[in-house]
Amino acid sequence: MNHRLRESLRALLLLVLLSSSSALQAQLQTTGTPGSADATTTISGKQLPAPQPPGKGKTGPTVADSKTWWPPRVVPKKGAPNVLLIMTDDAGFGVSGTFGGVIPTPALDRVANNGLRYTQFNSTSLCSPTRAALLTGRNHHSVGFGVITELSTGYPGYDSIIGVDNGTIGQILKGNGYATSWFGKNHNTPSFAYSVAGPFDQWPSGMGFDYFYGFQGGETDQYTPYLFQDHTQIFPWRGKPDYNLSTDLADEAIARMKALQAANSDQPFFIYYAPGGTHSPHQPPKKWIEKFKGKFDMGWNKMREQIFANQKRLGLIPANTQLTPWPDDLPEWESLSSDEKKLFARQAEVFAAFAAYTDDEIGRVIQQVEDMGELDDTLIFYICGDNGTSPEGTLLGTPNQYASFNGILDIPVADQLKLYDVWGSRETYPHMAVGWAWAFDTPFKYTKQVASHFGGTRQGMAISWPGHIDDIGGIRTQFHHMIDIMPTIMEAAGVNQPEEINGIAQKPIQGTSMAYTFKKENAKTPSARKVQYFEMIANRGIYSEGWYANTVPPHGPWILNAAFPPIEDYKWELYNLNDDFSQNHDLAAENPEKLKEMQALFDQEAKKNNVYPLDNRQFARSMEPRPSMTVGKTEFTYQGVNPGMSDSNTANILGRSYTITAEVTVPDDGGNGMIVTAGGRFGGWGFYILKGVPVFGYNMLGLAQYRWAAKEPLTAGKHTLVYDYVYDGPGIAKGGTGTLKVDGVAVDSHEQPNSIAFIQVMDETFDVGVDTRTEINAKDYILPFDFTGSIDQLHIKLGTTQFTPAEQKQIKDAHDRVND
C-alpha cells in the first residue's frame, strides 16, 4: 500500500470517528452548568446505569482551596412522552365494543378514536408468557416463560426466570430517567420466589420499577386480594365492605401520578397498568351486574353473529372474512334447557359487567392524565386481553374456579342456580361456560391456551399519541406481536437498546417498532414483522409474510384433566391470511410443499428461541418440584405468629398423609382463634380453637366441609394438639382418615371421602396464629380470628406423595417424551 493511499484511508477513518463522536454528542442533551447542582444530561443508553462522568471539581486542604462538582442528573431526551401501558386480562378479539363486541368499552373507544386500532396484533395465548414478551421485547421462550410460572420446568425456555441478559422496558426507561410504576397483575415473579426472603431480582423492583402496587400470580379474589405494595403484603380491604380491587388500583395509579407531578412535573412517567379484569374470578360490583340484566338472553350463537356483523360494519375485518364454524363438541344455545340458559346468561352478565367495570376504572386513569394537562404528551397503549377469552370455566361454568382447576368439571346446573343471586359476589369465585369464551373470540376458532389459532392469540389494541399519529381514528392491519410494544416505546422515547445492564451483556431485542404505522401514508405499508412463531402446551403456529401454518389441538382446553396424544400425531393446517383473515379454509392438502416449508421455518424459530422440548402436559406439571425453600422438605417447625406465607414455600399436604402437632398455651377460657391455616373460603384447611374447643376443618373447594372437633373445651395451661391424617393412596384426590388428639388422647376420628387434587387456592396464604384473608368455615368463625393463646411450637410432618401405578407411568412417559 503506497503512502498516499495509506494517508487517505487514515483521514477517512478519522472522519468516520469524528462523525460518530459528533453523532453521539448530538444525542446527548445537557442543561445547566456542568458540575452544578442543577445540571442534567441525557445518555446514549448503551450502558445502564450510565457510567458516571469524571468529576472536574477540586479538593484542597480547605473549602477555600476547593471547588464542588456534582454529577449531572440523568433525564430523558427533550420531548420524550409519558407512557401509559394498559393491558386487561383473558379477553379475546370480540369482547370489547371497540372491536365489534356487545360490551361497551368507552375508555378503549377513547384511545382508539384519538389514535389507531390494530386488528392483527397478537399475544402468546397465556398470561405470564404474554407479559414476559411485553416486558422484555423478546419471545416468551427466549426469556424462560414458555408457560405460566406455576407450571414451570427446569428447561431454559420454561423455568419462568427472566435472565439478567434480558433487560426489561422498566429497567431501560428507568435507566434513561423515567419514573416507573407498575399497578395490578404480576404473573412474572416465579411462584417459588413469593417470600419475604426473596430473592427480589424477579420482582417488579428487580425489573426496573420504582413502585409496585398489585397482586402476585395469575388471579386473585377482587374483594380480598393477595396484594403487595412493593415487597410487603397489605390488606386495604379490611373494614371496607364495598372494597373492590379494580377501583383500588385506579385510585392508587391516580394518586401516584399526582405525587409524581408534584415532586417533579418535568420528569416523564412510565406506568404499566394491568388490572385483574376479566380473568376469573369474575367479581364486579353489584351495580355493574344490574346494568347487564337480560343482555345475553339471545345466547352465544346469536351473540357471535352480532359481533361478526359489527366487525364487518366497522371495517375491522375484511369484507370476505368468513365466520368460522361452531365446534361440534360445544352445545348450540337452542339445544339447552331453560335452567341451563338461565344460568349461562347470568354467567355472561357478570363477565360483561366485569369487563365494563374494568374499562370504566381504566377510563378514570386516562382522565387523570388529561386533568393533569399531560394527555398531549402521553403515549397510550390499551391492549384488550393478554390472550383469548378463557375456557377454564368448563362446559357448565363454575361458582369456584379452583374446583375446575382440580378436575371437578361438572358441578350440576341445579346446584349452581342456588347461587344465581350472588353470582359474582364475595360468596363465589366464578367463571363462565366455555360457549361464551368461544363466542367472545369471534371471528376466530378456539380460546385462551391455544397458540395455534387466533382465538387464543388475537387481541384488540388501540394506541394514541397526540401530534404523532396523523390518521386519527384509523385502522391498522399490519401483523404484530407483544414483543413489538417495547421497541415502539423505545423509539418514541428516543432511547437505545443497552449493550450492557449492570455490567451484563444483553441479548438482542427481538421486537420490531410499530411506530411506522403512526403515519397515514403508511396505513397500507406491509408489516415490518415478517416472521413470528407461536407455541403453548405443544400447540404450534408459524407466520411468514401472510402465510400461516399451525397444528390442531387434540381437544379443547376446557377439558382440564384429559390426557394428550403423542405430540408427533398432531395434525397440521395451512392458511393464506391475505385471503382468509379468520383461518377458515385449510390449504394443507392443496399446497403440501408450502406446508413443509412453513414447518421447517417453525423448527428453525423453535431452536432459536428455546421452544424445545415440547411438552403437552397441563396441570400434571404443577406437581414437579421447583427450587423453593421447601423443595425436598418433609418437616416444618414454627413458633409464635407467622402470617402471609405463600403456599409455594410452605408445607403442601395434597395427596399424602400428614401430622400437625401444636404445642400451645391457652388462657382460662380455653382459648380462641386460628393456630394454622392454608386456604380459605374456596378451599383449604385450618386447625383452630373455637371457644376453647380444638377443631380441624377441611374445606373441599366449597363443595363440602369436613370437620373434627373435641367434645370438651381445653383447661387453662399447656396442651399438645395433634391432627393426624392417613391418606387412602395411592392415587390423586383420594380421601383418608383424620384423627384429632388432645394431650395424646383421640377425641374425634372419621373418614374424609375426597381431597383437593392438584392446586390449593393460590391467592390465599399459609398463616400461623392468624387468618389473614378469608375463613375456612364461616359457620364456625368470622375474621379477625387471631389466636388468644400462645403457640409454643407448631410442627408439620409430611408423608410421601402417592400416585397409582398408572399415574406414575403417565408422569414417567411425559418426562420421557420431554427428555427425548
Question: What report would you give on this structure?
Answer:
The protein is of the alpha+beta class and about 800 residues long. It has two domains: about 525 residues, Alkaline Phosphatase, subunit A; about 170 residues, Jelly Rolls, CATH 2.60.120. The chain has 15 helices and 33 strands. The strands form six sheets. Strands 5, 6, 7, 8, 9, 10, 11, 12, 13, 14 and 15 form an eleven-stranded mixed beta sheet that branches. A six-stranded antiparallel beta sheet has the order 22-33-24-29-30-31, with no helix packed on it. A hairpin with a 2-residue loop joins strand 30 and strand 31. It starts with a helix and ends with a helix. It holds the Pfam family Sulfatase. This is Arylsulfatase.
Which terms summarize this structure?
820 residues; alpha+beta; 2 domains; 15 helices; 33 strands; globular; disordered N terminus; metal ion binding; arylsulfatase activity
Quick summary:
Keywords: Calcium, Hydrolase, Metal-binding, Signal. With 820 residues, the protein is α+β, with helices and mostly antiparallel strands. The chain has 15 helices and 33 strands.
